[in-house]
Structures are given as structure tokens and as C-alpha cells.
Amino acid sequence: MSLDKINPHCAGIDIGSDSIFIGIEEKEVASFGTFTDDYLKAIAYLKEHNITSVAMEATGVYWITLFDMLEGSGITVTLVNGKQVKYLPGRKSDVADCQWLQQLHSFGLLRPCFIPDEITRQLRSYTRLRADHLSMASSHIQHMHKALTLMNIKVQNVISQVHGVSGMRIITAIVLGERNAERLADLCETSILKTKRARVVASLNGNFKQEHVFALKQALSAYDFYQKQMTECDTQIESLLKQHTDRLPTPPKITPPKNARHNAPKIDELHIKLLKMTGGNDPSQITGLTDKTLLELLAETGTNLEAHWKTEKHFSSWAALSPTMHQSGKTNKRRKIKKNSRAGQIFRQAALSIANSKHSAFSAFYKRLKAKKGFRHALKATARKLAVIYYRIMTKGLTFVEQGILLYQQRFKEQQLRLLQKKAKSFGFQLVQT
User: Fold this and answer.
1) Alpha-carbon span 187 to 207, nearest angstrom
2) Which helix (H) or strand (E) holds 420?
3) Pairing of strands 10-15, 53-57
């Protein structure tokens, strides 16, 4: 039985840092450099041979520029995951790779990666850059902790966050030369001083050695720098959202915004802009999610989920939140597969934030699984539950209502009773309530 060619006029491209290789059927492999002029020559070469579709691996960030230029020239691009290609038997070298990609693509054997629309790609660049700045800023918070500890200042043991309003006032004052513990304590918020002023004062009596104060100054300066970088990212995000949503209608029903407690984007009317993008659907109402997390999720998934993932199972699998199984014959074994997904990581962080909640049904679900199968399994399962609800809201326009921990426990109890009654009946017994 022979396979029919689905993409007759196609090519395969292998991308590297210094050169790219293009394979066309019955043609010698052509090599081009990676400068912009070289990419233009490569596109001209493809059009000269009437190529309408190309396949290439997602190699680091090298593919992005060529992908944009090919797409802009009218050539359909199929971006594939290199891990999927390597499991298909074939040759493995830079020259052979492009020929093998071309051959697989001609028969339609390659599964394309998810590539969002242009607006989503721009938003993704800004949100990922902002997340990088936030990560770098957090490392300098650790440097501030270290410098304070070396000076034997234990204010971080008394107030919840050294990078909060009170903590930053104290650190700034120390860097500027203030050493009096009473005056440093006065910089704290009234709510802190009302209950633990004596402890705050005691924690601020330290050994202010010059080298440690200098280290604190450096850490504070670096932290402020990355905060400024984040603000600039927020400005770019706001401009992009405004440009995209100004022409979109305002939803008839505006749900109340849920702002993040920490590191919230400084964007005017962010909630309304996000609702315009989602057509009035509001996944931010899901327990554990906020406008900040919704912004990050939209940057990773786009708004038209159903066009890329047919079901919620496809979506949760793409987010690396589904159980991993390996079936061979009659055996069905679990195996560890390292899969990373930024969208999945956002759902994991949301699941972790609600783990200790006293009112959420998600928290009860998480605690029950944690006691049974451990932390990792419980976190992943809870994150998957959040992802499924997110998919349903985005695709079906449902409204999320938190049912609460008591209702969840009651339903779980009823489920267990039904299972016990079914089990007892199968053995010829009858359950009797005492």
C-alpha cells in the first residue's frame, strides 16, 4: 500500500545558528547563511521552485525570524516539535534532516506546533519579558535578605515581606545612612506598629558594617532597576491592548476585577480590556486566577482555544497537565516524561496559591489527593482541573461559581456512599446506617 502525497510542492528546512539547509524533492540540498539577505535569497529560491509549503523544526529561537519572513511572503509554514520527528525512523544530520522533513511533510505525517496569531505573539513577547524581569528582581530580594542578615538586622523575621512598603522604606533609609532603630521602626505602616512595635525596634538594632551596607545598596539599586523595566513592559502591553481592544465592543456584563496581591501589571482598565478580548468570558473569576494570570494565559493560548484544541483533554495534554501513560500490548505502564509548558506552569502556580485555602472546593480536592498520592500528583491534578474549567469558560461562555469546601465534601461523601452500596450489593450485602 502506497501513501498519497498531501503536500506535493513542499520543502524541508533545517535551521542552525550559522546556516540553514533546504531540501526539495529530487533536488540537491541547498545551503544559505542566516543573515537577513541570506533569508531573502532562500525565500526567492523556494519561490523559484514553486514551493507553497515548508516544514521546519522549532530550534531554540532561531526559527522565529525565518518563520515570520516565510509567512510574510505567502508560504505556509509547518513548525514541528523536534522530539516528535526523532521518534520517526530516518537519517540524522543537518543535510539529511531537511530531506527527511520534506519527505514526511509531503505525506502529511508531521503534526504542527501551536502558533498563535500576531497579536498574541506580540503580547507573549512582552509578558514573558516581564516575567523574566520579575524573576531577576526576586533574586535581588534574596541579596537584600543576605545583606540584612550579615548586619544582624532581623526585620525580615518580623514583617511578612522585606520588599513590601514598610520593608522598602527601612532599606532605603539604611542605605541613606539612618541607623537609629526607633526612627527606622517609625517608617513601618501603622498596622504593623500597632501589634509588634517592640519586636520591630529590636530587629533593627544591627551591626552596620560598611561592606554589608554597600551590598544592600547594590541589591536595592538592581531591584529598583528591574521594577522600572517591568513598568516599561506594562506600558508596552497597555499600548498593545488599547490598540487591539479599542475597536472591540464592550461586553454587556462586566464582572468585578480580581487584582493580584503582588506584582500586578500597572495597566489602566486592564480587566475591561481583557473582557473585550475574551468576548465577555471571564476566567479570572476562577479561584486562584486574577487579571494578571489571565493576561499571561491569553498571551500563551490566545483567545480562540477551540480552533487549536478540539476538547478540554487536548488542551490539558498540550499544557502538560495530563497523566502520562505508555501502553504496549497488555501492559500499561507509567513512565516519567519531562514536558514543560508555560501555560501549564501558570495553572500550577494558581493551584499552589489555593492549596491552603479554607473555603475553596479546589483546596479540599488538593488536600484529599495530597494525603493519598503526594504533593506532586495533587498539584498537577488540581492544575489540570483549573485548566479544564478555563477551557470551558473560554469556549462555552460558562460562568464560574465557587461552590465552597462544605458542598464539595458533601458531594464526595455521597459519591463514596454510592460506591459502597454498589460494592455491598455485588457481594449480596446491604448497608445499614447506625
Assistant:
1) 20
2) helix 405-426
3) parallel
